[in-house]
């Protein structure tokens, strides 16, 4: 079977051919069954917010119905649909974060949920104004901080605490434009209210309310998710890992962890180290237990433990099709509902674990913070006992994997910069100043955050990799998260050797600082790390982040979470380039608001560009304009 969307992927063709032989259905069969996708939906002009509808208005102004039954026009319908995507995305990231904070609320010294980065705990407690943050007993402090974090979701007054990390200029802009995000649940609820039938119809107002909600994700839920995961599971530091389907080991019990929340994955990794389980695996004829990761669970676990990355979003089915996975263990987000049926084509057990994402079709073992390790032990036992059921005739693991470096948290990046500064004894330690210095000096032309998913509207991984390859050639350093990071890993861009694919300036920086030109910063909630480092750079120079030559890019995005992210990145003053066009073109007014007009009041805007090379040309122009304006 050949598929032009997968041309770029060396393993895809064999994998899909095997699926066909095995009688397994994949996303490509289902995509073909969809035939032409709905033009109204694509343009964002289909409304089913009330039961007088669904109403669809013309995606081309002046042709066909211009209003729904209630009178809503294309601008209102598009803006409401877009805003509801933000609400969905914000709720997903933030609800994930809340689970992390709940685990921390119940953390105990005797574990398994415990405090592993005490320095970060004390730093954030101090940042949030907790008294005696330096001296309080660790767990009393952790519980107090967790309590405060839980208030960030529902407090009746005030705005998000982490907003104070932004430079004053940005904080003032948020206040002036009335988009400083309040409690996260409040923002989501209010936005759902505003987009209810018969509420807001003004598209600009809807956009601003959506952006405020998105900002409650980036500077609230996602940032809490990142920072509190670090406190409990350790702040990532640079380490080697490996990526692509070849990390699945034919001689081991293979457990695929897929989803987003590190609470479950951390327990599964702990359980797999249990000597009793390892012995059991050997008794069943395996050499041991091999945990491999996918999507953001994979990112969380590779960043902190070097767990191998089996692949990104579009490879979730291919993993099972290898016939060598004993169990797929999932929690929340980005999990195809198709997986249990696919697993049944092989011996694979599919285990869903979250009340919030119960996936029907195979097993359900409910995970809770109280019984986390017991749940994980049960899961590992099922996987190990399933090993003898593997059908050797169906095992075919593509012999392709790529070494990679991961683990570049903000702290890890600063450590690397310190190592250089230290040797020269001339500058302050513990800051991102050397990074801004090389950008200001023109050694680097700018920096780009490349993030997001895979989407069959783009050739898989191609858009990610092309954008990064072209940027590093042109001396733009890249930081990556999510499935974009895994695309980079598979393409060998996260290695020290990738410096040879860079322009001269970036090559010099990579050599001196001993880093790859593309830095893996973690999962999708860890885009908050990117926000943090950009804001630290702006702070060093005393300017608004909007003035820096930095961009956000999502070449192959697909989820509501990505819409929320794009909103908070633009809302933080960073121009954001989308390789998949959001469903807004049915309203030229709303489209213009996103791509041009919001620049005036936010200082940043969205750019839609499907062609990765043209996108990079636009980005370079954007960066050079910023450089000229800064006089650098
Ligand atoms: Fe139709 Fe208005 Fe109801 Fe939407 S809210 S379905 S446009 S009547
Ligand atoms: Fe993700």
Briefly summarize what is shown.
Its EC number is 1.2.7.4. It holds the Pfam family Prismane. By secondary structure, this protein is an alpha/beta fold.
Can you give a write-up of this model?
With 632 residues, this protein is α/β, with parallel strands linked by helices. The chain has 4 domains: 6-56, no CATH class; 74-233, Substrate Binding Domain Of Dnak, Chain:A, Domain 2, CATH 1.20.1270.30; 245-394, Rossmann fold, CATH 3.40.50.2030; 406-630, Rossmann fold. The chain has 24 helices and 16 strands. It has helices at residues 12-22, 27-33, 39-43, 74-105, 118-127, 138-154, 168-176, 184-194, 203-233, 262-272, 275-283, 295-305, 316-321, 339-345, 372-386, 410-424, 433-441, 462-473, 482-490, 504-513, 527-541, 560-571, 588-602, 612-630, and strands spanning 46-47, 55-56, 239-243, 253-258, 289-294, 308-311, 327-330, 349-352, 363-364, 402-406, 446-450, 476-481, 518-522, 550-554, 575-578, 606-608. The strands form 4 sheets. A 6-stranded parallel sheet has the order 6-5-4-7-8-9, sandwiched between helices. Strands 13-12-11-14-15-16 form a 6-stranded parallel sheet, with helices on both faces. A two-stranded antiparallel sheet has the order 1-2. Bound molecules: iron/sulfur cluster and fe (ii) ion. Fe (ii) ion binds at residues 260, 295-296, 334, 482, 523-524. Keywords: 4Fe-4S, Iron, Iron-sulfur, Metal-binding, Nickel, Oxidoreductase. It is an enzyme of class 1 (oxidoreductase).
